[in-house]
Amino acid sequence: MVTHVEPPAEPDVTLTDPRDLLTGYLDHYRDAVLRKLDGLSDEQLRTSRLPSGWTPLELLKHLAYVETRWLRCRFADEPVPDPWGDRSAADPGPGGRWHVAAEETFEDVRATFLDACAHSRRIVAGARLDDVASAGGRLGDSGPAPSLIWILFHLLQEYARHAGHLDVVRELADGVVGE
Fold this sequence. Notes:
Helices cover 51% and strands 2% of the residues. The chain is mainly α. The protein has one domain: Four Helix Bundle (Hemerythrin (Met), subunit A) (Up-down Bundle). It has a two-stranded parallel ribbon. Helix 1 runs parallel beside helix 5 (148-174), helix 3 (56-75) packs parallel to helix 4 and helix 3 packs antiparallel against helix 5.
């Protein structure tokens, strides 16, 4: 049985300000990701349906750390105890496998995600779109520092891609389709 879920509203079609458009779509996709996970059982959240092996709960934790790495670590150059906290201790760092510990609940990971998003919003609110990252391009890279507008666009494409992944995973898990 296929159930359809109504998508969250997109930003207003009359928006012309790039900041409002980018942040509006980021919030749209943040909401879409959470809506895709709502209603899944703990087993469904922790079960992979794809050959790559990631689970929906691991993806949510990954997105929390993507926010943290790009905006707190790279853009604002804030100290973060473990910027790769979404990775397995056995496989840490940028190429490591996503991981959620058995004792971490959906509510724990969701709270981490919401906190990361709120922190990101505060950073963005206090900066101009043409400001450049304080800590450079990527953690450990010495390449050129991207602008805030570039980072926001990068985050937007990452969210859109992963929301699409969750569309497929959710339909495979319980037949629910839609954003």
